[in-house]
Amino acid sequence: MAQSTAQYTQRVQTMFTPQQYELLREYAAESQKPLSVIVRETVAQYLLDKLEQRRKQKALQRLCSGDAPVSDWPDMERQIETMWEETEWTPASL
After folding, report:
1. Where are the chain's structural domains?
2. pLDDT tens digit sequence for 58-93
3. pTM for the full predicted model
4. Quick one: the chain helix, strand, coil %, rounded to 5?
C-alpha cells in the first residue's frame, strides 16, 4: 500500500482506554509520527496486507481450479476482473 500517493478519504472512529491512548500517544511522539499515521500503518501491516494476500490466493485458486474462463483475451480479462471484485472477505476468513 503506497502511502505517499494514497488519498485518504474515509474516516474511522474508535475508542481507547485512557491507558491505551497514553501508550499510543507516547509511541507516536517517540516515532515522530502523528497518531493517525501510527494507527493507519498498524492496520495496514497487521490486517489489510493479510486480507490482500488471502484475496490473491483465493483468486489464484479459482484460476487454477479449472473454473477459469476460456475465451478471447479481452473477454477473459473482464471475467477474471469480475471474479476478483466478487471475492468477499469477512473477519472469519482471516
Report:
1. 18-89
2. 888 877 877 655 678 888 788 778 877 777 666 655
3. 0.52
4. 65, 0, 35
**Per-residue pLDDT tens digits for 14-52:** 999 999 999 999 999 999 999 999 999 999 888 988 888
Cα distances from 82 to residues 13, 41, 78, 89, 91, in angstroms, run 31, 29, 6, 15, 22
Which residue is it, cell 466478487? 86
Distance CA 51, CA 58 (A): 11
Rounded to 5°, angle at Cα 11 from 8 and 17: 125
Measure Cα distances from 59 to 35, 42, 62, 76 in Å: 34, 25, 5, 14
Burial profile 61-80: b = 16 or more Cβ within 10 angstroms, e = fewer: ebeeeeeeeeeeeeeeeeee
Which residue bears the cell 472477505?
89
Q: What's the rounded Cα separation, in Å, for the pair 49 and 69?
A: 28
